[in-house]
Amino acid sequence: MDDRLKLPACSKPLEAFAERPLRNGQGTVTVACSGASAWRLFVPVRATHNVSVVVAANSLSRGQRISKADVRLHQSSSVTLPLDYVTRLEDVVGLTLRRSVPAGTVLVTGAMDHPNLVARGDLVTLVAGSGGIMVKAAGTALEDAALTERVRVRTQAGRVVEGVVEALNLVRVGPRR
Question: What global pTM score does this model have?
Fold first, then answer.
């Protein structure tokens, strides 16, 4: 510690703890003395470690569906990483890009979308039911939607229902099983 602080010697072992979790390897640690002459000191810290992150293996275009050949793992310092970086290749393969990405760029979850599994005008299968009973019906999608998104569908009877996309051209209506 800096001698200019003029802190009295502590009669007990010093305690150190982080007030809040470190973000991007940076934060503040509280060093405290709980002895006869108690005091607290806030010390800025910077912790670094290497993290395996997913990066673009080559330049990728907006709207492009990511394949395994488009990405690779790269060791990077934790201090320089964005908050929502991706660490597993399987988490990005099959997703589409919201914007163009230069080669070597760390991929973040906000830059990718699940591809649409239902397109407006597609014939979809509506499923409903629970337990051992399941009902299926055909319908026409009224809008595009990706996995787990809500979508409106017109049934063959002309009624408009809303459900959640579970797979390619498969929409669940009603409560989840």
Answer: 0.56
